[in-house]
Amino acid sequence: MKPAILTDTTKCTGCSECAIACQRVNRLERDIPRRWDFGDGLSAENWCSVVDAADNTFVRKQCRHCLDPACVDACPVGAMHKTAAGPVLCDTSKCIGCRYCMMACPFGIPRYEWSNVVPYVRKCVLCYDRIKAGGQPACTEACPAKATIFGDRDELLAEAHRRIRRNPGKYLDRVWGESEVGGTSVLYISGIDLSFLTYGEHFGKEPLPQTTTLAMESVPFAFLGMGAAMGGLYWIIERRNRLQAEKAAGEAKGQREPEK
After folding, report:
1. In whole angstroms, what is the distance from residue 18 CA to residue 211 CA?
2. How many Cα atoms are found within 13 Å in the side-chain-facing hemisphere of 248?
């Protein structure tokens, strides 16, 4: 089984029971909105939110758990990793807070713990422990309208296309997450365009790691180059300071020597 979620935005009532269940099950603290937030309700303490989009349509937002995640490829220490079952997790024991994953994610999902002394990046984990135990994510279990359902990805894709075929005037002919950036484990069908989930960007079907690998491979060399440059600059400045100090000491000594 390839665990996945299908969200039908035409069924969502905006009740936010999914977000409430997520906070409760994952023991997340109540968060304080900040001026630099994306305005989508997500944060280090809110892994699931409901966005009031347009035409009375509500869209649940969470980590998309990409099949070939760019965040994993961008993480220099292996903290962000994809499990064999599918969910993408972040190991806080390895996370160094560099936020490369945040820059790599096309959906803007990972969030930083700005208020913590030792901050990490956090996001939805698709209730991985519940899935391993044979259960389902808290969000899908809590949805009273069954607007979001859990199951095998192939079966959910088939169901999504079935609904579109049966109601062509109700849905756009597209399953979001089927192929974008290589495909995701969180799928959507909707009667409105959901391009705002990628901030209006169109990334195509190729997995993003294929476009980020070259840049990430250059990071160690960039660090070494920067270290060498900073070391050289430090040596130049220290040498200049030493010469100036020696010159000043020599002038002071000359002024103190009595005339013969």
Report:
1. 34
2. 6
Q: Which pLDDT tens digit goes with each residue over 23-81?
A: 999 999 876 656 556 678 899 999 999 999 877 899 999 999 999 999 999 999 999 99
CATH number of the domain where residue 105 is located = 3.30.70.20
Q: What angle do CA 173, 178, 184 make, to 5 degrees?
A: 145
Q: Are 61 and 42 in contact (CB under 8 A)?
A: yes
Q: How many domains does the chain have?
A: 2
125 shares a domain with 186: yes
Q: Give the whole-angstrom CA distance, residue 123 versus residue 43.
A: 8
- Sorted by sequence, the CB contacts under 8 Å of residue 146 that are 6+ apart come out as 11
- pLDDT of 205 > 80? The answer is no
Using the structure block, give the residue that is written with the tokens 């979620």.
5
Which helix (H) or strand (E) segment holds residue 242: the answer is helix 219-256
144-160 confidence digits (pLDDT tens):
999 999 999 999 999 99
Residues ≥6 apart with Cβ < 8 Å to 176: 187, 188, 189, 190, 194, 197
- The Cα 16–Cα 19 span in angstroms is 5
In sequence order, the β-bridge partners of residue 195 are: none
What is the distance between the alpha carbons of residues 177 and 186, in angstroms, rounded to a whole number? 6
Question: Residue 39 is part of which domain span?
Answer: 3-216
